[in-house]
Amino acid sequence: MITIRRADSLGLAHSNTLTLRCHFAFADYQTPQDEHEGRLRAINLGTIPSQGCYQLGPEANVDIITWLRSGSLRTGVEGFPAEAIHSGGLHLLSTGAGVHGLAWQAGANGASFIQFWLLADTEGGEPTQEAREAFPKLEDGGFRIVASGFPEDDPEEMEVIADGAPVTLRALSRVLHADIPAGEGAAYQTMQGRDLYVLVVRGGITICGMSLSEGDGAMLTQMERVVVMATQDAVVILTDVAS
């Protein structure tokens, strides 16, 4: 089954002076029909003005992935050193037993970001953070794993951690990125009992015969394989979570 969420139907949530466009219920945006799907708690799109700040907290037992579309961000997580994130880069905060303060401050040119919240599979534990520069583009335009809680994807299991190794989630989930040229496609295979959510970051795609544009999302349930075709140069982010 496929459910489409159009960009012009997204909800709005507020944090300080920041307004988030939300694919699921979040903060002061609460609607029963838009509750989170499986272990995917939230997908939020935000823009921070020059030197502006997005603050949260406290949070616990959730993995928060911030993918930077443009501009720059400097993180401020209590108990951790600040990280500088640039366009295409990614920051992961696994909140574990809890962190009291979280902040992302934009640089001189502001910042546009997409944030994914994934419910952890186990509660507690020490909080952790990781950051990555922009991931190298795959030559075939396919999906690259940028975050994963699957043991087989763990970069620590590799003898050498190469550029583009995924950050490690506490949820048995994956987040994948694809940069697909117009007229080409990307395929992904999962297993039973999983939910997939496809987010169009840029461009246009077709999926299951339906057209999606920038900002649109598609939830796929009871489907183990998805093929995304680009009708124009497209950037797509896919989440794979337990139902």
Tags for this model:
nine-stranded mixed beta sheet; nine-stranded antiparallel beta sheet; globular; mainly beta; 0% helix; 18 strands; 243 residues; single chain
Which helices and strands appear, and what pairs or packs with what?
Layout lengths: L1 E4 L5 E5 L2 E5 L17 E9 L4 E4 L5 E16 L6 E3 L3 E5 L7 E18 L8 E5 L11 E5 L18 E2 L5 E7 L4 E5 L4 E14 L2 E4 L3 E5 L3 E18 L1
Parallel strand pairs: 11-12
Antiparallel strand pairs: 1-17, 2-3, 3-4, 4-9, 5-9, 6-7, 6-8, 6-9, 8-10, 11-13, 13-18, 14-18, 15-16, 15-17, 15-18
How is this structure best described in words?
There is one protein chain. The protein is globular and about 45 Å long. The two termini are 13 Å apart. It is mainly beta. The mean pLDDT is 90. The chain has no helices and 18 strands. Strands 1, 11, 12, 13, 14, 15, 16, 17 and 18 form a nine-stranded mixed β-sheet that branches. The chain has strands spanning 2-5, 11-15, 18-22, 40-48, 53-56, 62-77, 84-86, 90-94, 102-119, 128-132, 144-148, 167-168, 174-180, 185-189, 194-207, 210-213, 217-221, 225-242.
